[in-house]
Amino acid sequence: MRTGRSIGAVLLAAASTIVVALTSTAQAVAAPPAPGRDGVVVSVQKNRDGTITETAYTPAPGVTAKDLAARLTARGVPNVKVADEPAMTTLAAACSSGTARTWPSSATCFVRWAYNGYARPQIYFIDHSGSAWPVGRAVTKWNETSGIDSVYRIPSSGCPGGGIHCVHVYSGNYGSGWTGLTSRTLNAAETYYTGATVKLNTYYSGTEAEHWNTACHELGHVLGLDHNTSTGSCVYAYRSSQRYPNADDFNLLERYY
Ligand SMILES: [Zn+2]
C-alpha cells in the first residue's frame, strides 16, 4: 500500500513538473502584437503663429498603425508618424506613475492647462456628439481628479470665456482607420495647452462600453495623459470596454495640478 501510494505521488510530481515546464516554454515565446496594437499614430503640425497642434488617433480594431498612418497621409493629413509604445522603464519617474504616463512634449515631461486665476484649471467639455457617446459620464469620472475641474456642457450653453478652457467634442462619420482622436494645440514653448478638440468616429459600430471607453480615452488625452500600459485603464492605447481611468491616471494628474 505504502509503496503504491509513493509511486503514485512520484508520478503526480513528475506530471506536475512536465506541466510547469510546458507552461514556462509557452510563456517564453513572445506573442506578436495583434493587428492595430503595434504602435500609436500621431500627426504634428506647426502653426503659423508658432503654436503646435498634435493629434493622436486611436486605431480601429484590426487596423495596424502603419496602415492607419498610410490612410491618413493619403487623405492629406500632414506629418503623420507612427511611434512605438516606449517601455515604461525608459521614462523618467516624474513622467509616469505606475502604469500611467504623461503626454510629453519635446520640451517638458508634462504639458498643462493654465489656471487663469482659478484654484484649478477649468476644462469645459462642450458636447456636440450624438447620444450613443457617454461623454457626460466620462467627464464626471475625470472630474474626480482633485487638481483639475472637468465640466460637462451642452452646446446651447456656449463657452463661458473668462479664463475657462472650452474643449469641443464632436461625433461623426470620419471614415475608416480610427475610433477616436484628440487634437491638442500647445504654445510655442510647449509648456501649456492653448486648445483641444475631440472627435468620436461613428464609422465603426461599438457597444455602449466601447463608446464610453473611447470618450474616456480621448478626454484623458485632453487633460495631459499619454497611454496607460494597463488594460485596466481607459487610456490604454487601444479600444476596449474599460470605461474608467485607473488610480495611476488620477495620481499622475494630481502630481501636476
Ligand atoms: Zn490614445
Automatic annotation (TrEMBL):
The keyword Hydrolase applies. GO terms for molecular function: metallopeptidase activity. SUPFAM superfamilies: Metalloproteases ('zincins'), catalytic domain. Residues 206-251 form the Peptidase M10 metallopeptidase domain. Keywords: Hydrolase, Metal-binding, Metalloprotease, Protease, Signal, Zinc. It is an enzyme of class 3 (hydrolase). Its EC number is 3.4.24.-. Residues 1-21 form the signal peptide. This is Matrixin family metalloprotease.
